[in-house]
Amino acid sequence: MEGKMGVINQLKWAWDSRGIVKSLLYKWRPRNCKNEKDHENSLSAFLRKKLPEIQITPQYARGRFRADLKIGKDIVIEIKHNLDSTAKYERLLGQVVINSEWEGVIILLLVGNTNPNLKKQLISDLKRLGLYNSWSASDDKVLVIEK
């Protein structure tokens, strides 16, 4: 029975990996996380527990491309703790532009204190770059989730 469930989970993952990860991110409840690394460790442990048959790779890198977590073959997560200054915003946007050449989906996970104006500017810039369409989230290259 367990082998059969593994195949079913793999098929489910292949059909909607973006939706599954997005749903899990909304369910994730980080506790006692004081910085970005704490959030990365907490999220990595949570995803490994919820997706035991899926490869979770922390600190994924390929060429200039870098991400905090890679999930499966087609999703990476970039965690940003306290997006509260223009300098942090500009660094994040630069990372997204560099990483946008990657073939999969990029999830920007905003944790801690996020300045609402910087989040609005981020979404506006992602739309301008053609990476984010609020009306068609299933086609977005970049998803923005705030915890």
Overview of the molecule:
The protein has 147 residues and is an alpha/beta fold. It has one domain: Trna Endonuclease, Chain: A, domain 1 (3-Layer(aba) Sandwich). Helices cover 46% and strands 22% of the residues. It has four helices and five strands. A five-stranded mixed sheet has the order 1-2-3-4-5. It is globular.
Give the helix/strand layout.
Layout: H1 2-27, H2 36-50, E1 56-62, E2 65-71, E3 75-81, H3 86-99, E4 105-111, H4 116-128, E5 142-146
Parallel strand pairs: 3-4, 4-5
Antiparallel strand pairs: 1-2, 2-3
List descriptors.
single chain; alpha/beta; Trna Endonuclease, Chain: A, domain 1; 5-stranded mixed beta sheet
- Helical region count? 4
Q: How many strand units?
A: 5
Radius of gyration: 15 Å
Main CATH class: Alpha Beta
Helix content range: 40-55%
- Note the run of SSEs as H and E: HHEEEHEHE
Sheet having the most strands: 5 strands, mixed
Strand-residue proportion? 15-25%
Brief characterization of the structure:
The protein contains four helices and five strands.
